[in-house]
Specification:
heterodimer, A: 261 residues, five-stranded antiparallel sheet, three-stranded antiparallel sheet, 8 helices, 33% helix, B: 411 residues, alpha/beta, 2 domains, 47% helix
Chain lengths: 261, 411
């Protein structure tokens, strides 16, 4: 197979991620290689789900080979910037409820495809969300493989996630509390950070114990906006939203639009 | 009329339930018990009734050998949890396909009552396997292992089959809410997270199990916790159909339970997993009792003549035909006669159906009913000295539990 390496991303641990040109997959694509793969069954299941999704919110997977020796994946290259570039006072999301809710809605719609399959992303954070240049829609990266391929994603006693974005149940290894609602908590952190350009909690203890401060940086969002964030950032997963549809209903009450079918 | 559904918890005397349903229009449907109703009986039930009913697959102890149960062939090759583990995917398929084919309203995912199996050798082996599973770290405590077992043995095979086969009927998942869940917040939270994270589940078939000294539950903490549990399930838009319960269902309706059961004998008004095991389960024939809609208690029948001599029975007992039959001259009281149970079904259903749809109002109504019961017991105390199982000792405890629950959700 004729393949040209365009760029190799900084290496971490056993993983190598590169941007390659491979005409077999239509040109530019991302190639991910990881040695010593654990949790093979789960990764296979999640990659298969992503392959079957055919959804604009996830990169397409062109090829995947996963066994105990190696995980090799070719996936769609997304031309755009990740959400870390959108954090700050210059950003269109800063102090802008409508923009924050629009992207939240897109992300919830995207994640609902995997939640419906009882699959959890586990590592929602700005670095894993790219705004596609062509249509300004968010694309969620690293479903199922984020645990293995991201340098700042850490294992926390068997659980995966990124400190600062992980739900309390992930941070404190409460495996029985973990599920799709853990992604909801991380979404809440991401949206809070876009709005305030600061995360809601300093550390995992604050995340597990303290209520959100909605008056940070002299900003004062509407009560409806606070209500959505509060519900996403509930400490106990069962106090968060029941499902994607209910999040979208609350968002639509503020910005309008159709509910999930 | 409110939207609380009443299901007949069918058992050995399921015919009485069917009769009350037809004659008195009591109950919205039936909870079918394979232990007591074989396939031939099921086939005789009207389709229209089945459409409002659901099956309790009764996997609790995994070792029922009664013919009626075996006619369903769910667990016909299972002697213990080890066998079950090997066959779980096939069992899930059989159990779901059957419920999908019959015109039941819901498909019920069963549960296994792990406490019943704790002494089985095969259970210990499986427990150790889970503990050493590479995907499950050793920091797990026994509650975590229980939840993992529940996922591995029940939820995974059943929900996978349901999702893969695009089953459209609403799905109930069975939970036994026991004393341990009421006392242990980790287990309480884990169970809630497990079911509310699962997209496949639309409702819970909830079986309260409280070890008690007397016939009425009087453990305030247990009652508060189960009400909180119901409240959280409802907040998550899950139906809550309570099974195997008695008058205490009044409290569960305040927490938002969407359906409550009415059952004939005591063993249908109280969950006891042993009833579903192969061990000899012989419920002792109880003294005949009759339900008072004012006292909110089942009263042993000899007290009725004392009340009659000193007051008016109609102040305490709904005067329906079944009650009046018990008052006929030469009526021979015996626990196996239908009148008391039919009276209960009619009388208790009326109380439930008169509750408001608004939960705040419902709270006030139930509190008022309890206050009324207290006053009635006080009146009667001038001339009746009730035994512990007929007395009103539970009433103040229920009021306390109700208030405590109400305060906890208002926080």
């Amino acid at each position: 197979m004729n393949e040209q390496i365009i760029k190799v991303f900084p290496e971490s641990g056993q993983k190598v991620v590169s941007l390659v040109r491979n005409e077999h997959y239509g040109g530019l694509c991302i190639k991910k290689v990881q040695k010593d793969v654990s949790f093979i069954a789960r990764i296979k299941k999640e990659v298969n789900i992503q392959k079957a999704l055919d959804c604009i919110y996830f990169p397409k997977i062109y090829y995947a080979k996963i066994d105990e020796n190696e995980c090799l994946i070719y996936e769609e290259y997304i031309d755009g910037n990740d959400l870390t570039k959108y954090i700050g006072k210059h950003s269109k999301f800063y102090n802008n409820e409508t923009e924050c809710l629009k992207i939240l809605k897109e992300l919830v719609i995207g994640l609902s495809f995997v939640w419906n399959q009882n699959v959890v992303h586990r590592d929602i954070k700005p670095a894993n969300i790219i705004i596609r240049n062509s249509n300004q829609k968010p694309v969620i990266l690293d479903l199922g493989i984020a645990k293995n391929l991201n340098s700042d994603s850490v294992t926390q006693g068997g659980m995966w996630g990124t400190p600062g974005y992980s739900s309390p149940e992930q941070s404190f290894n409460k495996r029985n509390l973990f599920g799709k609602k853990s992604d909801m908590f991380s979404l809440g952190v991401v949206i809070y950070e876009l709005f305030y350009s600061e995360r809601p909690f300093k550390d995992a203890y604050e995340a597990a114990m303290l209520p959100c401060d909605f008056f940070k940086n002299n900003l004062q969002p509407s009560e409806s906006f606070q209500k959505i964030l509060t519900k996403l950032l509930e400490k106990m997963p069962y106090n968060r939203y029941k499902n994607a549809d209910l999040i979208i209903q609350d968002i639509n009450q503020i910005i309008g639009g159709d509910n999930l079918e | 009329m409110n939207n609380i559904k009443i299901y007949h918890q069918c058992g050995f005397r399921y015919q009485w339930n069917i009769e009350v349903h037809k004659m008195n229009e009591v109950g919205d449907g039936f909870i079918i018990s394979p232990l007591d109703m074989n396939m031939d009986i099921l086939k005789k039930i009207d389709d229209q009734d089945l459409e409002n009913s659901f099956l309790d697959p009764q996997f609790y102890a995994l070792n029922i050998y009664r013919d009626s149960y075996l006619s369903y062939k769910f667990l016909d090759e299972v002697d213990n949890i080890y066998d079950y583990n090997l066959q779980k995917n096939g069992i899930a398929k059989k159990c779901i396909d059957f419920q999908n084919k019959v015109s039941f309203k819901y498909i019920t995912i069963p549960t296994i009552d792990f406490d019943l199996l704790a002494l089985e050798e095969s259970y210990s082996e499986l427990y150790d396997d889970i503990k050493s599973d590479s995907d499950v770290s050793s920091y797990f405590d026994s509650n975590s292992i229980k939840i993992s077992l529940l996922n591995k043995l029940i939820l995974d095979p059943f929900t996978n089959y349901i999702t893969q086969n695009n089953i459209k009927k609403p799905i109930l998942f069975t939970i036994v809410f026991n004393d341990e869940m009421a006392k242990n917040s980790d287990l309480f939270n884990s169970m809630l997270a497990t079911v509310t994270n699962n997209e496949t589940i639309n409702g819970i078939y909830l079986l309260p199990q409280n070890n008690r000294t007397f016939k009425r539950i009087s453990d305030i903490n247990f009652l508060v916790k189960i009400m909180e549990f119901i409240h959280i399930l409802r907040e998550n838009d899950l139906e809550v159909i309570v099974g195997y319960s008695d008058i205490e269902c009044l409290l569960y309706t305040v927490a938002g339970a969407t359906a409550i059961p009415i059952g004939v004998y005591e063993n249908l008004r109280k969950y006891d997993g042993l009833k579903f095991s192969n061990n000899d389960y012989s419920g002792r024939g109880p003294n005949p009792r009759i339900f008072s809609s004012i006292l909110l208690q089942w009263i042993e029948y000899p007290y009725l003549s004392v009340i009659k001599e000193n007051s008016d029975l109609s102040k305490y007992f709904e005067q329906n035909d079944y009650f009046l039959e018990t008052q006929e001259k030469d009526y021979n009281w015996h626990f196996s006669k239908p009148q008391c149970y039919k009276h209960y079904m009619v009388s208790f259903s009326r109380i439930i159906k008169n509750l408001s749809n608004d939960l705040e109002e419902r709270y006030q109504q139930v509190d008022k009913l309890l206050e009324q019961a207290n006053n009635a017991f006080r009146e009667l105390s001038d001339f009746v000295f009730f035994d512990d199982n007929s007395s009103g000792d539970h009433i103040n405890k229920w009021r306390t539990a109700l208030k405590s629950y109400y305060n906890s959700i208002k926080k």
